[in-house]
Design brief:
Blueprint lengths: L7 H11 L5 H4 L16 H13 L4 H4 L1 H8 L4 E2 L5 H8 L7 H23 L7 H4 L2 H24 L22 H18 L12 H14 L5 H12 L23 E4 L29 E2 L1 H10 L2 H7 E4 L16 E4 L11 E4 H15 L3 H15 L10 H16 L5 H7 L3 H6 L24 H6 L5
Antiparallel strand pairs: 1-3, 2-6, 4-5
Helix pairs in contact: 1-7, 3-7, 3-9, 7-9, 9-10, 9-11, 10-11, 11-12, 11-15, 12-15, 15-16, 15-17, 16-17
């Protein structure tokens, strides 16, 4: 059987090239999905190797570090910190088509899509009865479909309209696809997720493997985010997650203490085992565990700290942010005094712990948002869900008592609950609040930060390298 493995060498070389700014010792590691020697993808074991490649290629910067850049540094939760000009441009809304982070993210996400496509094209043709004995072929195809959907969902939220590449390109022209309308991108995402939901398992050995809970959660997020949200669908799929066997962890801080990975609240979680392990490192950039002497690449904003304080939310503040005396360190900062400097504290233990993609609290609050938007009186149905999240951190019930006040209450609750988990910017975009919120930002002395953003800055530009390669992508 002819196996369609397209452009692996070229794609790998390209990805390594755009990751040139990363730590050298990371690049020297053997990739988790690298297949060495002569491998024939002609049986169940070969199909599993293809799927392992699709999972393994997620363990790169776009799903680890850049999720925090896109979700928190671009938003009002964090300043860029550090001295990386690409990060700072994302913080200040001065990103252009040559930004290294944007170029890297585009390349890595399309590599992820390529790996998922290879599973979807090749596994149906493998003639091994063992693939069908226990329904494993359908599960593999469902998992790959969900992975492809997630990568396109990421692309759509960051870039907007993008090319839909659903099979191996067979001609030069097929290697230069045009950008698809955003509605078409979301339609394909939903098609892939619906196929996945019908075929993936209910449970798996760890929270990194696609299950029905993950697919339901993604469907809820997609229906809330697509150009014309469908709140009934958001409620439907949120309920499927909420009733799917997940429970909130009793102590908020246990979510981030490094001792409770793959917990009952975790719906989807990256599975790292450190620098020396086969799956690389987790989100070490903002963490305290790397050591002193350098400025972290994510700095909590004055506005976020003030929001925690205004709410009296000591539990989530202390789990999310810690203050240290950095006076002896040889860097400066324009936002905070070094004598009492804030650091992200959710990534506190080592480089592998607590890398959530989705957890139950996110979905509970998303359902509350959908109920509030679905129609008159929805705010009353949303209230007990918001209060459930607040009760865990010893806060009184929300005072919101109509749709407008509940909308802002849910937005605030999501911000405080999910800070530094890559969610905030996408929340602001989804609810058309990004321009108003960001243009109102002030520093610690009350002076405007003068972002002055418009709709043109809400989406990242297509990388110049991609435009040069494929003029149809404009």
């Amino acid at each position: 059987m002819k196996i369609k493995l397209y452009s692996i060498i070229a794609a790998s070389a390209f990805v390594i090239g755009v990751m040139g700014g990363c730590k050298k010792d990371f690049l020297e590691k053997t990739p988790f999905n690298q297949v060495t020697g002569d491998v024939a993808f002609v049986d169940l074991a070969g199909a599993e190797k293809l799927l392992a490649g699709a999972y393994g290629s997620m363990y790169t910067d776009v799903h680890i570090w850049d999720l925090i850049l896109h979700g928190d540094v671009t938003s009002d939760n964090a300043y860029a910190g550090g001295d990386n000009p690409n990060n700072i441009a994302m913080d200040l809304f001065t990103v252009n088509a040559t930004n290294g982070n944007i170029d890297r993210d585009w390349a890595q996400l399309y590599t992820n899509i390529k790996d998922a496509n290879e599973v979807l094209e090749n596994v149906p043709n493998i003639q091994d009865p063992a693939l069908d004995a226990n329904g494993r072929r359908a599960q593999i195809l469902g998992e790959a479909s969900a992975l492809r959907a997630y990568h396109y969902f990421y692309l759509a939220r960051v870039f907007g309209s993008v090319p839909l590449v659903l099979k191996s390109p067979a001609t030069l022209e097929e290697m230069k696809p045009s950008s698809a309308p955003l509605d078409a991108v979301y339609a394909q995402i939903i098609t892939d997720l619906e196929y996945a939901l019908a075929n993936v398992r209910t449970t798996a050995p760890n929270k990194g493997i696609i299950t029905k809970g993950i697919v339901n959660a993604l469907l809820a997020k997609v229906y809330a985010t697509k150009p014309n949200p469908d709140y009934a669908k958001v409620i439907q799929y949120s309920d499927a997650v909420i009733n799917g066997g997940y429970t909130l962890v009793g102590s908020y801080d246990q979510l981030f203490d490094g001792a409770h990975e793959n917990n009952t609240e975790s719906v989807w979680e990256m599975q790292f085992d450190g620098w020396g392990g086969p799956e690389g490192r987790g989100n070490w950039m903002p963490g305290l565990h790397i050591g002193n002497g350098w400025k972290r690449f994510t700095t909590p904003t004055n506005d976020l700290v003030a929001a925690f304080d205004a709410e009296g939310d000591a539990i989530r503040k202390n789990s999310s942010i810690t203050f240290r005396n950095a006076s002896s360190e040889d860097w400066s900062d324009i936002y905070w005094p070094k004598s009492n400097y804030p650091y992200v504290y959710k990534h506190r233990t080592d480089d592998k712990a607590n890398n959530y993609i989705i957890r139950l609290a996110d979905i509970i609050l998303l359902k509350a948002e959908a109920l509030n938007e679905a129609g008159a009186g929805g705010f009353a149905q949303a209230k007990p869900l918001v209060d459930q999240i607040r009760d865990r951190v010893d806060l009184l019930p929300t005072p919101a008592n109509d749709q407008a006040s509940m909308r802002l209450a849910i937005e605030k609750e999501r911000r405080l609950e999910l800070a530094f988990e890559g969610q905030r910017w996408f929340d602001l975009l989804r609810n058309n609040r990004a321009i108003a919120v960001m243009n109102a930002q002030k520093n610690g002395q009350g002076a405007s930060l003068n972002y002055n953003i418009t709709t043109e800055e809400l989406l990242a530009p297509i990388p110049q390298k991609e435009i040069d390669r494929n003029p149809n992508v404009r």
